[in-house]
Write a structure and sequence with these properties.
This protein is mainly α and 148 residues long. It contains 3 helices and no strands.
Length: 148
């Protein structure tokens, strides 16, 4: 690993349960919005069919079916994109949080030489810098003495 990028992504699902719940919620919201918008548009269009003759009514129903199919195709295309982006974005928080947790556990056990290294631009980079300063201060205050 190069010193510029100490943490390469090895896997995107760091905390599988959390990340999948996160993405599932986003997909469900998109799905609900798509269904509600298609039902609302269908209802509004259907209400306007009262004063149509049979030929224009048939044309209208065909158009309505085309709109519904188009919305379904858009939804089917959006779900994999949302899954990918959601997992990738949640990894930007869960990955650093996982590293923070492990380093804080080590510091809690008295291993004050531990430092957190995050990728540049990670969401929790400022928090990691503060924790590193704290660990450095603790290391200066409580230097480890070799066991006899």
């Amino acid at each position: 690993m190069s010193p510029e990028r100490p943490y390469q992504r090895k896997q995107y699902l760091v905390d599988r349960d959390y990340q999948l719940r996160f993405v599932t919620r986003i997909v469900m919201v998109i799905f609900a919005v798509a269904i509600l918008s298609s039902l609302l548009s269908s209802l509004l269009l259907w209400l306007n069919t009262d004063h149509m003759d049979s030929e224009s009514s048939t044309h209208f129903i065909t158009s309505l079916a085309t709109v519904a199919i188009t919305l379904l195709i858009e939804l089917l295309l959006a779900i994999p994109i949302v899954l990918y982006v959601g997992i990738r974005q949640s990894h930007r928080i869960v990955g650093p949080m996982n590293r923070l947790k492990h380093i804080l556990e080590a510091i809690g056990k008295g291993e004050f030489s531990q430092r957190i290294t995050l990728r540049q631009g990670d969401v929790l980079e400022d928090l990691a810098k503060s924790i590193n300063r704290m660990a450095e201060s603790l290391q200066q205050r409580f230097p480890r003495t070799p066991s006899a």
